[in-house]
């Protein structure tokens, strides 16, 4: 695992966040993913992003520097959430990644070829439907990642539900338009919906199927705690 932190940002990191790399290493014990690169991205507004390097397959997590001043629990919850995205293979599907672009290209080609209005209207409807389907799947994946992050943290000997709840409580408020219905077109549920789902303790709607079909492990709660878990990892 590699952590990349600019010198200017490193000077502002509180002492209690020094265990960030240790936590990431402890969480990755319970995943089957390869190496992990953590970087700071000042363009992210109090947010984080999980992505995969298409050249070498390395997992990457970009974190907003603002999260470094949120306190340890919100930061750890965000880190566990992004690692959960990687563990559940979210966003890895080739068809899902490019189907919206294929439909857009077909629409542009139809305009260039001057296709009948009915055909163009059908392509517009298809593009809209693909966007809604992708947005809904992304929202469900956020619930999955929250639930799996709790399991990963519990397996590392940390209070998973409390840490993830702290991360969700630290989320910025959604715009009123997004809360009133704009979320249907977005890739994230509202912060209120995520907090409510976590508080109910219900299993995420798609997580059971993800664990079954993707052969993702279900980590068991640790018997000893984060420090002992990480010690066992480094001694192997």
Automatic annotation (TrEMBL):
Pfam families per the UniProt record, alphabetical: Peptidase_M48
Cofactor note: Binds 1 zinc ion per subunit.
Cofactors demanded by this protein: Zn(2+)
Coiled-coil region: none
Signal peptide: none
This protein's UniProt keywords: Hydrolase, Membrane, Metal-binding, Metalloprotease, Protease, Transmembrane, Transmembrane helix, Zinc
Residue ranges annotated for the Peptidase M48 domain, each copy included: 60-198
GO MF assignments: metal ion binding; metalloendopeptidase activity
Transmembrane segments: 105-130
Protein origin, superkingdom: Bacteria
Protein name, entry field: Peptidase M48 domain-containing protein
Similarity annotation: Belongs to the peptidase M48 family.
Biological processes per GO annotation: proteolysis
Xref: InterPro entries: Peptidase_M48 (IPR001915)
């Amino acid at each position: 695992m590699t952590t990349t932190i600019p010198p200017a940002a490193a000077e502002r990191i509180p002492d209690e966040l020094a265990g960030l790399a240790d936590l990431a290493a402890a969480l990755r014990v319970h995943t089957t993913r390869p190496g992990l690169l953590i970087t700071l991205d000042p363009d992210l507004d109090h947010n984080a992003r999980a992505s995969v390097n298409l050249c070498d397959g390395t997992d990457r997590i970009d974190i907003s520097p603002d999260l470094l001043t949120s306190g340890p629990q919100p930061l750890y919850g965000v880190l566990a959430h992004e690692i959960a995205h990687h563990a559940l293979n979210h966003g890895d599907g080739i068809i899902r990644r490019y189907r919206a672009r294929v439909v857009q290209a077909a629409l542009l080609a139809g305009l260039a070829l001057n296709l009948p209005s009915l055909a163009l209207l059908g392509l517009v409807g298809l593009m809209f439907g693909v966007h809604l389907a992708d947005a809904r799947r992304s929202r469900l994946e956020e619930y999955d990642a929250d639930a799996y992050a709790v399991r990963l943290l519990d397996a590392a000997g940390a209070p998973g539900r409390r840490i993830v709840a702290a991360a969700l409580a630290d989320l910025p408020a959604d715009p009123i338009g997004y809360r009133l219905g704009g979320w249907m077109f977005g890739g994230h549920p509202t912060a209120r919906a995520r907090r409510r789902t976590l508080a109910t303790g219900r299993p995420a709607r798609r997580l059971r199927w993800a664990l079954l079909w993707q052969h993702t492990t279900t980590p068991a709660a640790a018997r000893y705690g984060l420090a002992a878990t990480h010690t066992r990892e480094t001694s192997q």
